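Example (one chain per record):
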Amino acid sequence: MSDSAGMDTIINDLKEAPDVEVLTLKVSKCVQQVAQPAFFLRLAELAETAEDEQQRVKLENLATQVTSVLERLVEFAEEKMDDSSSLLQIVVTSAAEKNGEFLVPLSEERLTALRQSMKIHRDQLDNNFLATVQAWMEKSGKEEEMQGMVVILQKILQMYASQEILLGSAEPSATGEAGEADAAAPKKRTPAQLLLEEILNMDADKWDGVLAGLSAVGRGMTGGVTKDGLLGAIQVAVERVILQQENGSMAQRVQAEFLSELCKRIEAACPEQPLGPGMLE
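Predicted structure:
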């Protein structure tokens, strides 16, 4: 489908919106295509070649309405970003020492406080919050004296991902039945799943100590879990992230990158075997 044909399809769909609320909903679903100069140029072209005056006026009015909707969406997004910035400030503050300073690496006490803050505000940790964390990281990364803040923000993303993956493993599957990792049915969890839960509940800086116990045959340090066994449990988690999170969302991206990093750390700790088939790289 050509660009103009694709735009025409969107325009025809927007023209059928019975009111502003429906139009806003439709625009929000295709905002990347609509918020482009080419979209409004196409609207102008169609208006100029309209079959009658009524169609021309309708297209011109649509351009005005879409512009208004986009302005409101931008305002809403800015408000959400402001809210997310305030929330992030609260979360970050929990990692500060009693004198207000930030010391990295974070102490166990500060890690616990940060993790607790993440749990308290879990319902507010949405895609806007994650985008704000990412924006702060990019800005802090450009300043030498802010490298410690980058570490803290990375911890926030890691804690977010591990928290959501753990909670996601307890959600019902698509069939409506509890998954194997359902916390309410611990007997169904395999040793590999239990080890993955243990890893997700610990600070990422401590992973290597546990992963060093992996091997092709499994050793006592990991409860007999092999490298492939753990990778298999991670693959189940990857599939849940894909199914449970909106495709292309920050939530999906952060969790997928977290699991990808875990796979790389497993490979580094136990390089005698390649990553299992289908694993993230």
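Caption: The radius of gyration is 24 Å.
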